Amino acid sequence: EQAEALPRADLEVDALEDFDVVEGLVHVDGADDRFAAAVDVVELARALIDAESVTPARGAVFDVLEAALVPLGFAVERFVAGEAPDGPVENLLATRGSGAPHLAFAGHVDVVPAGDGWTTPAFESEVRDGLLYGRGAVDMKGAVAAFVAAASGHERDGQITLVITGDEEGSATFGTVALIDRMRARGIAPELCVVGEPTSAKRLGDTIKIGRRGSVNIWIDVPGRQGHVAYPHLADNPIPKLIAALAELDALVLDAGNAWFQPSNLEVTDITVGNPATNVIPAAAKARISIRFNDEHHGDELAARVTEIVHRHAPDAMVTPRVSGEAFLTEPGALSTMLSAAIHDETGFVPELSTTGGTSDARFLRALCPVVEFGLLNATMHQRDEAVAVDDLRALTRIYANLIDRAFGTVA
Description:
By secondary structure, the chain is of the alpha+beta class. Helix content is 25%, strand content 26%. Helix 3 (141-150) crosses helix 9 (390-407).
């Protein structure tokens, strides 16, 4: 890891009286009540969206977030980690209070590229017909804004930590992993963690993610010997070998699923020969497979199984796996119970506990403490005209505030 401290944002930290930043989204009325600040979740979400931050993100979007956190009493540390091609990446670690209980919120302020076809510019937020539009509105600047707004008000006994990265949408090499290293070096050890990914499917609060399947991608490169199709005895065609290996891999039944996880699945995601000639046996054939696996497997074991199958058909093949995350499960317990109760208080229904979907940075954070994921509706994430209902933003803020109260023992 290559890390460097970032210069502080242009904040007069010692002069919080009548502190207004980012077009008035944070207000502190008096220095005697340092943490009686109010954050407007919609204005903060808009300010974050307007700070363009395609992954890997640095700079302005972190300035906005820091400017919102400092008046709330958070000590903010920003640092840049990594080098090209996966870096540099900016990260933010913010803490307030000390001791127990210790609740962490984790998320990201980087976004995927906007793409074409937006009704209004993707990085110029707009509210119309009750919806807030802009890239990152649901994934996941809206949830970051909601938690910051929920943390507004008087300081509680105990500790709150925000763990915010700028590369969750990218390689995730120098983001949350680097933040965890920094937390361990600082002795920051949360007891519970919520990740603000957009987990809701049809209505806000219908789904909490308590685990995720693991992911391994595997590249297969089968060598051959190029030659004329009329003289096959002088060549070695790699394609039949690759096809035979892929046929056996495609027929694998890895498991039948279990109480918390759906069955693991192996998918062929690419086949490449790159042979423009009709009369040439190619010199190589390549493929890529992706396996999403449940907690009955480990990535390295699956990679070894794939390698053995490929080598039976093509002994000289090169098999290159990359495990991007192991499966994990946070057994239902105190954290999911408190969050479910907070959701029920706001919505009147009990959320489903789920492990569906792709990977997230929760796969790293689970090494610290129990972790669950909960956030906004995911219907428009990564799409053009990404949008969140303003009412949902405010409701999510209330749910997070309720969770904070429960974690800190102020709600029975």
